[in-house]
Amino acid sequence: MIFVQALGSSPEGAILVLCSPAASVRATDLYTPLQSLREGRWFKLICGASFQHLPAIRNLTLAYALAGADCVDVAADPAVIHAAQEGLQAALRLGCDRLPWLMVSLNDGEDPHFRKAVFDPARCPADCPRPCETICPAQAITFDRSADGHSGVIASRCYGCGRCLPLCPIQQITTQATAITPGMIPALLAEVDAVEIHTQVGRLSEFRRLWQAIAPAASRLRLVAISCPDGDGLIDYLRSLYDYISPPSAPLACPVVWQTDGRPMSGDIGDGATRATVKLGQKVLAAGLPGYVQLAGGTNRHTVPKLHALGLLYRQETVGDHCTTAPPQSSFPSKFIAGVAYGSYARVLLSPILERLDARSAPLLEAVSAAQTNAPLSNSSSYQSHLGSYDSPDDPVSLGRSITPQTAIEPSLAHLERHADLLAQAVAQARTLVTQLKGCADESAVAVALSHKPALDTIPILPKPG
Ligand code: SF4
Ligand code: SF4
Question: Could you give the domains of the chain?
Answer without folding.
Answer: 1-114+178-466 (3.20.20.70), 115-177 (3.30.70.20)
